[in-house]
Each structure stands twice: as C-alpha cells, then as structure tokens.
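Predict structure. Chain length: 265.
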Amino acid sequence: MTTTTPVVFIHGLWIHSDAWQPWVELFRAAGYDAIAPGWPGDSADVETTRRNATALAGKGIDDITEGYLAVIRELPAKPIVIGHSFGGLIAQKLLAGGNAAAAIAIDPGQIKGVKPVPFAQIRSGFPVLSRPGNKKRSVALSKKQFRYAFGNAISAAESGDLYDAWSIPGPGKPLFEASTANFSASSPAAVNTRRRDRGPLLIIGGGQDHTVPEVVAKAAFSLYAGSGAVTDYHAFADRGHSLVLDHGWREIADHTLSWLAGQNL
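Prediction complete.
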C-alpha cells in the first residue's frame, strides 16, 4: 500500500490556520495529504479564537512545537512541514529535530544566531514588546498595525479584508523569546543549523516584508552554510508578510510545489 506524503502547514502569529485552506486544497490536488492544525489555544475558527483570546496567553515556542509534534506523532509518515513567520521557525525546529522529511520556512521568525534587527522588524513587534507584561498575555493587532506588519505591499483595501478575515490575537511570549534568543544559553528559538542528516530546507524571503525583513531571512539561511544538507533560498522581491494569504499566494505555493518536485518529495 502506498502512503500519501503528509504535509503540515504551520501558521504564524496573528493569523488563523484557516487562512491556509487554499494551500491545503492545492496540495491535496497535487497528491499530498495536507492539513493545517492551529497552535495550542487556537479555537476551530477565527471568531471563536478572537472571543477566547485568553486560551492563547502564555504559550511559547516550546509549547507550539510540542503541539505540532503531537500532530506529527499521529501521522503515518514524517511530513513535509511548511511554516509562515513563527511557523517557519517551528518548521525549522521540527526538521532539525528529525521530525519532518523536509521543511519550507516562509518569512521565518528569527532563530537564535540571526543578528540583524531592522527598524521595520522592531516597529512590527512593538505592539507586543513595548509592554513586558505582554509576555504572559495574548495581544491582537489593530487594523493599522496589521497594515504595517502584514499588508504594506498590497492595497489598503486588501489589507483590511485580510485583517477582517484572518487576524486573531497571538501570545506575546514567542516574540519575547525570539527577541532575546542571542542572550540566552538555552533559548527555545535555537535550531541545530549544522545537522547534516536532516531533510531538505527551503527558506523564502519577501523583499518588502516588515515583520521579517529579507535581511533576517537571508541571515537565517547563512547559518546553514557548511551543514552539507540541502538548504535553498528564494526571495520574492515585491512581496510583504502577507505573501501566503494575499492575492498573490498562488505564486508562492507554485514555487514550493516545484521545489518539492525537484527534491523528489
């Protein structure tokens, strides 16, 4: 019996997992067994998650990683993991831990060892990082904050529509953990970038991204130099942080499918 390759999509901060549905449908049509589970504390839909924001509070990188490990343990084979933003950080951790066959990290959250901290990234994280108490809370972006962090490369109208459709509160803890990773000996944002026997990794950057500026994605890619394992990088020069859910999502998805085909996955 042939087992269909599982694919697990991992969302980032402030976006509900249902935003992956077009990707899930596309990957299923391409022959993969694709799913998009939420983070621990997420509810089944956007509105319920917004009403139950306290369920997300206090969840950190390790909690989120363990939530996806629990999903992976129930799968018939190691999955391909595809993550956006903090989901891209989690995808790298899963791959480095030997829990995924391959990973695609799209505008990935900052892993330990990445040094650039551009102003745009600071401004995007300011709604959370400006208040230390937010580490224990869940925080929602305003529509204006979403426009800067996610929707700067698309029209204001589309950014507003995406906000209304998919934005949810997010736990503050992961941002605090990532922002202090280089000062912590045991940071949960650490990834073993030197592992030689892992599966292939593709990192995708957005040239107009404010939340994870391309210099941050490139810096993550450079940490894998010398590992010996397949590590590729591709940038979409005109795309912002909304690239996986806005009108141009299909271009990104088609590139990931082509890359996977090139890896015989």
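Summary: The chain is about 35% helix and 15% strand.
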